[in-house]
Design brief:
The protein is of the alpha/beta class. It has 7 helices and 13 strands. The strands form 3 sheets. It has a 6-stranded mixed beta sheet with strand order 9-8-10-11-12-13, with helices on both faces. The N and C termini lie far apart (39 Å).
Amino acid sequence: MLKEIITSQNIVRFNGQNFVEEEDDIAVESALTIILNGNEFATMVCTPSDLQELVVGFLASEGVIRTYQNIKSLHIDEDRGFAYVDLINKHSIQKDFHSKRFIGSCCGKGRQFYFHNDVKTAKTVMTKLMITPEQCRKLMKKMQESSSHFQQTGGVHNAALCTRDGIVISRTDIGRHNALDKLFGYCIIHRISLKDKIIAFSGRISSEVLLKAAKIGVGIILSKSAPTNLALNLAEELGITAVGFIRGTSFNVYSHQERIQVIGSLPPIIGLED
């Protein structure tokens, strides 16, 4: 039985003049514990959807696996909140790098191994893909419009894997890093070529988000929000074009501007939220 990702709750809303009783849609938050080779590896708080992709992307992001074929078996017990993973090579995990831990859904440094394994998993992106300003704005608009869960609850992050012409796949989660791991897992499971791909993202471009893009292998990340200075330092070093504050008819290009190609005038796009 699949878990619901949206629930409803009776609330009291103040409408400016009076209190009114209403029913509101609420994002569901649940815990998922990964049991790796028989040992408790990590517990993450997430939206209970696309969990196979989340687990695969998470393990790949941390250098535990490189391909889907590294996994011997993967079983998810959604009712109990466990993911059981056995690897082909059970000696591939370096115990110095990994220990049991809890990973929250907050937007801060939720992962205790922050930067610990990034040296071997992050890579410089060499893509020659270029994108126009109009395409940047259209992709952000499409990502926002595609998320019914955000429109219902306002309580989730969205990430989309895109080409210049549209969205390939989009994923939603209460944790921004989880949303990106779901994209990563999808790419690994389905062997998606990334040379012509872009990530559109709803949240702040932190160093963790930037590193995630590098691990996935995408050279352009688009966001409606702001970056951090460490993220931009990493973007310059890892060859990633970071575009932020995509709102209305404007945006900021923070790194590797050579991938943004201006062609003619820019018509306005109606409907992109300020």
